[in-house]
Amino acid sequence: MPLSSVPFVIEFPFVLGRPALLPDPWTTAPAPCVLEARRRIEAAGFVPAGFTGRVGLMLVEHDGIVRAEALLEPVRAELMTRWQDATAALVQPRVEDEDVREALLVDGKGRGTTFREVLAEVFAPFPDRDDDHGGREQRARRAVWRGFLTDGLDDPCVRLLMRRNADPARRDSSRLIALTSWWRGPSPGWDIRHDGTFCAPKSGARFLLSKLLEGIPHEPPRPQQDPAGTAEPEVLYEDDFMVVVDKPARLASVPGGSETTSAREILERTRGELFVVHRLDMGTSGVLAFAKTKEALRPLNLAFADRTAQKTYIARLEGLLEGEERQQGSIALPIALHWFERPKQCVLPVSEGGREALTDYEVIGVEDTPEGLKSLVSLHPRTGRTHQLRVHCAHPEGLGLPIDGDPFYGTRGLLEETREHRLCLHAASLRITHPMTGRPLEITSPFDFPTF
Asked: DSSP string of 392-406?
């Protein structure tokens, strides 16, 4: 099925509260007006039976009437394959310079930029090299980036906004109030998708949307932590060489991205410079260690690199892990960066860039929640890949149950991006040898997941 070229349009009176500004489509849960628009679009039969791919939605307001426009981006048939058969070339296709697509991106002020000009801007800081000085490698990297941004050009949110901005009458007379997408159909075997899940625009779309949104009032990316309301993480262990704290959920381990504060930055206010030993995902709470001296840093880094540092996590899954044979075991699925959907990860063969990843697990209890019974599992990663535990829980060939509250791999997607929810993953203990004394340490932190 080719990309849909003409949007499906419905209009209805505005009866639901609307955002003051266009929300950031990467970090904001869909508003009630979005949920209502999706209900009406799907009830009208716009999404055909058997469709697999993204449905993009744009809402604009004019004189109290909401106009909802939707576009389809079907997944390429060859992508619907088992992870064992997936290749890097398949999931992140390259685009050579002579194959660059012609497209015009018009921003909110009516200023046009060609897609080729966008690519030239991306590559401008990196002058051409000859073959004796890395030219072949540079051309290969540029082909990947062209593929990355071309994939973003196909994102239905990008296409909807391009159409709107190209029409001066619509651009000047309506207010953009929502831009989002959701997945319909089964997941490719190498990816993790759930039917009906709201998802952020593709990574390649982020740069393009930043161009298209110039001149349109919109929210900047939201930091997940309020710097003014962030208390110092609780210290679990400290001496002259290291400090170990209980990091709260939604606090970054180190500075980066849109986050204006982090556990390291808070601790450095009273301790001076600290050195990173390992990291926890922003959504993950629990035991986090820093070195206080360079002398202690090297043995601590070695302990994590050679896996003598042992970590135990507790997670609550979205449902009940049933069957006696599934109460404990190991998961071995190689993990790679999902380059077109970063920071998400995917499952690829080692020969195609996947990195071996192994997790031991054991069911340790059950929680009764308003949504039903949910399993509590103890997770012991034997490797340290990005999002390893989240992928190993969510993938059908892992546990097949996402970690509760996971906006990347869970069944609710961006609907998890509220203050009432959180990723129910907690670093419960760290066993490590003291970097200077050689004394064994075991540092623990109890988990406390909210009920939802």
From this structure: HHHSTTTTSSPBTT-
Rounded distance between C-alpha atoms, residue 147 and residue 136, angstroms? 17
0.90 cut: is pTM over it? yes
- Phi and psi torsions of 250, nearest 5°: 65, 25
Separation of alpha carbons 13 and 229, rounded Å: 39
Question: Would you tell me how many other CB atoms lie within 10 Å of the CB of residue 149?
Answer: 24
Q: Which of 191, 281, 404, 406 is catalytic?
A: 281
Q: What is the pLDDT of residue 430?
A: 98
SS3 content of the chain, % helix, strand, coil (to 5): 30, 30, 45
CA angle 360, 361, 364 (to 5 degrees): 155
**Chain CA centroid to CA 12, Å:** 32
Annotated catalytic, 167?
A: no
Q: Which DSSP symbol is given to 403?
A: B
Q: Give the amino acid at 374.
A: K
Dmax over CA atoms of the chain, in Å, equals 72
* CB-CB neighbours of 428 under 10 Å: 20
With tokens 């002579």, the residue in question is: 98
Side-chain half-sphere CA neighbours of 444 within 13 A: 4
List the structure tokens of 36: 């209502």
**Cα-based angle 436, 442, 443 (whole degrees, multiple of 5):** 100
Radius of gyration of the chain (CA): 23
Query: Over the chain (452 residues), what is each successive 10-residue block's mean pLDDT?
Result: 79 76 90 92 94 96 90 96 96 95 95 95 92 92 95 96 93 91 98 96 94 92 68 93 96 82 94 96 96 97 93 98 94 96 96 97 96 96 96 98 97 92 97 96 96 90
Give the residue from 290, 432, 448, 314 showing the smallest Cα distance to 380.
314
pLDDT for 229 equals 65
Distance, CA of 417 to CA of 115 (rounded, Å): 32
Identity of residue 178:
A
Q: Which of 176, 217, 151 is nearest to 69 (CA)?
A: 176
